[in-house]
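Course exercise 7: structure representation. Students receive a sequence record and must write out the corresponding structure in token form. The form below is the worked example handed out in class, using Extracellular solute-binding protein family 5 (584 residues). Read each field label carefully; the graders check that inputs and outputs are placed in the correct fields and that the protein name is recorded exactly as given.

STUDENT ID: A-19
EXERCISE PROTEIN: Extracellular solute-binding protein family 5
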Amino acid sequence: MEKLYSRIRNFKLPKKDEINSVFTAFSKNEKIIFAALVLALFISTVSILQSINKSLMVEVPFRGGSISEGIIGVPRFINPILANSSVDQDLVSLIYSGLMRKNPDGTLTPDLAEKYEISQNGLSYTFTLKDKIYFQDGKPVTADDVIFTVNKAKDSVIKSLHKVHWDGVTAAKINDMTIEFTLRQPRPSFLENATLGIMPQSLWDNSPIELNDANTAPVGSGPYMIKSVAKESSGIINSYELTSFEEFILGEPFIKTINLHFYSNEDDLIRALEEGAIDQVSSITPSNADDLKEKNYRVESSVLPRVFGLFFNQNQNNLFTDKIITKAIDQAIDKDKIAREVLFGYGIAIDDPIPPNMIAYQKLAGGNGATREEILKNVQDSLAKDGWSKGPDGFLQKTTADKNKKKTTATLQFSISTGNAPELALTAELIRQDLSAIGMKVDIKTFEVGNLNQSVIRPRKYDALLFGQIINNESDLYAFWHSSQRKDPGLNVALYTNAKVDKILEEAFTTQDEQERVKKYAQFEDEIKKDMPAVFLYSPNFIYVVSKNLMGFSIDHITSPADRFLNIYSWYTKTENVWKIFSK
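STUDENT ANSWER:
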């Protein structure tokens, strides 16, 4: 061992002359082999180092880049209180922040709020604002701005769409950073109300909200702010250039610039996309989406909480008091065919008044595995058993006698009133064809949207109404089905009355326990199915054509088109590779 240590201590590296003498002693072939071995060693070493480096690297979003999106419509009221058009709501979603923010998965997270506390009885919500939160003009966001915004939403003169959510709520300032909301009764969905965008009081308090220049030059605290605007000579806005807001409290967005271009119709919108003037479009018709997908555009879609159905007016046509008839209508309509031919697969057939994915309980699978022919035969048999038979004109008739034995013959016929949108008109025609096949006589009446609302829906002048319900949250079910909402301006277009359903909806509206609330809504659906006040047809998809290099976005649980921008601060088009330890 001592000899080994001695050799190690006395070991010396060879000198340059000694190395050269060895190398010059090599033959030509030996030199070539030696050089090849050295080269192989070098290449393998570099390869190993690259492999090690690659294993330690991860791809992460990189700030920069831009996207251009086309929208149908012209901005008019870019403020959270008055925004009721899709274009205004899109811009509000980009420019404003609320106390809370909805996540792409449907959950809620604090935004401007640092935290919130709920009293045990569910009647008090106390929000504490985060430190160093600013509007895009550099002014701090305070409790005064929050209270100002809420009071504007409640103002009966302004008639905001949000008024119904804030009625009966009192907002009180505890200090500059703390606000307490007091409710008359518990509202499980109140935190969703707190996503309302907060407006700077200093900008809006000096003139009527409808006339304020800030409607088209908005200032919020959201992820993007207005950089420039392009207008026609008439003053109509053509486009906005938005830039990322560095002080956005949830983190500066990755994409630097958002360009929004406005078009008057879908044809112009699609043309601009195909010509390359814009990268993205949304809320287009299923037929256009189908065409674009065939042209290799990236088309994303997700089911919206919309319920399209045939709502019966028993006061206008007493045929609908007969559950045998309403059940026959439900079974005879080929809903899957409507989803295929009207929606081109951008939507799903439904049988329930609650949209898919809205309430977390297991729904029973529809259908019993019968073929289409078997279903129609069962429908015809049930109608025949109820006394209906085909007359000379091929339509079902039924003869009845009054107490004086006077006979009268009635034809099974009714009309469907709907809007003149292509999807609604085609849906109505497919329904007419299905019902005609079993002997029902159906007339279709189409109306321009404004006339449909004013002359048909509001006075309840229709036999059956082909109509879509927008259900943004659970509490909207009360507006569509509670008996108190039967008359205008209520939204109970089926004029449905059921004391048990009223009680269920009232209790669900105030029940804090989620599991108990879910049970209530399951009971609600059971009652609706028994009474058949409507035939539920389909829920359409939100359709979004996006840039192929866009990453980080999600539309899986959106309730409105503007919700596509919920996590826009996380979108990105550029990436870079960094070591994992630096990826945060």
